[in-house]
Amino acid sequence: MVRKEGVAHITRQAAEQGLARLMMRLPATRGTIRSAAASQPHFYELCGAYGEACAVLDRMRRDRSADPAIITEYEIICAEIEVDVIRILLGDQ
């Protein structure tokens, strides 16, 4: 995976997880995603936000007492980040 020096360990871990999830979610763009993460710090940070949002969503989905409205909110957040990633990859930043 892509390594970025100076990024906090937890943030780096979330970014690597987000990067992996994005590549699975958008398989046709795997190479472009990996390249963007390696060359664009803001894109790598976006991968971290995606990784963190997905991790929270996963935990909430397992928690039967979680508020369905908050689960929906995190689903929307993840979908919006995916749209942002696609826009960046297409050059529509």
Tell me what the structure shows.
This protein is an all-alpha fold. The protein is elongated, with a radius of gyration of 13 Å. It starts with 8 loop residues before the first helix and ends with a helix.
Descriptive tags:
single chain, 93 residues, mainly alpha, elongated, Nodulation protein
Q: What composes the largest sheet?
A: none
Tell me the β content.
Answer: under 5%
Please report the number of helical segments: 4
Q: Based on DSSP secondary structure assignment, what is the total number of beta strands?
A: 0
Outline: elongated
Rg result: 13 Å
Average pLDDT reading? 89
Taking pLDDT < 50 over at least 5 consecutive residues as the criterion, the unreliable ranges are none
The multimeric state of the shown protein is single chain
Q: Spell the H/E element sequence.
A: HHHH
Assign the structural class, choosing from mainly alpha, mainly beta, alpha/beta, alpha+beta, or little secondary structure. mainly alpha
What percentage of residues falls in helices of 4 or more residues? over 70%
End-to-end Cα distance: 24 Å
Task: Tell me briefly what this model is.
This protein is mainly α.
SSE blueprint:
Layout: H1 9-25, H2 30-39, H3 41-62, H4 68-90
Helix pairs in contact: 1-2, 1-3, 2-3, 3-4
